[in-house]
Amino acid sequence: MSNILDIVQGLGQAAANAYDGAHDENGEPLTIGLKREEGHPILDSRVMDGFSVKFAGDKMLVLYQGEVTMKEVHPRNRFENEIEQRFADILKFLKKEYRKITKSSVKLKEDGEADIMVQSTSRVRNWVQAKKSYKINGTEGVDKLGRPSNDKLETSVRNFLDKSTTKRAKNDKAPSNPDTPS
User: Does residue 10 lie within any of the structural domains?
Assistant: First the structure.
């Protein structure tokens, strides 16, 4: 059983190894499943896309961003399926790279559908921002998200606010504002 810190560090390093232009041990370009890998790197116009990962509790959040055309977005179900497939490719890459780094495997389970948002800056430029959450298996003892917090901080803030007064300091020479209560 791995420690959650080891899992997070391994997945973080796997995601860091996915930078644009990365090569494997044999000198071949890494294939992650992103649009930037298609075509010739110098002769074709480059498509800007990429992903990052965040961790919260026992979950890993994969964030994807990239350029899209309106032609790609209009058939709604096909576009959503493409984004879901892109997440599947990213997850496959992360698991494979994690296994290379740590010599062990990690199990990630989908935690709902992808949240996809398409924005436009002009008639030509559009981009997509999507995020998908995965539950990391083997993270017993980690606090779950959404658990109510303790009242320790709340009571300390309340005590601090109770100590406040409306008295003015002795060295305050500013004229009083007639619009505010004294």
Answer: yes
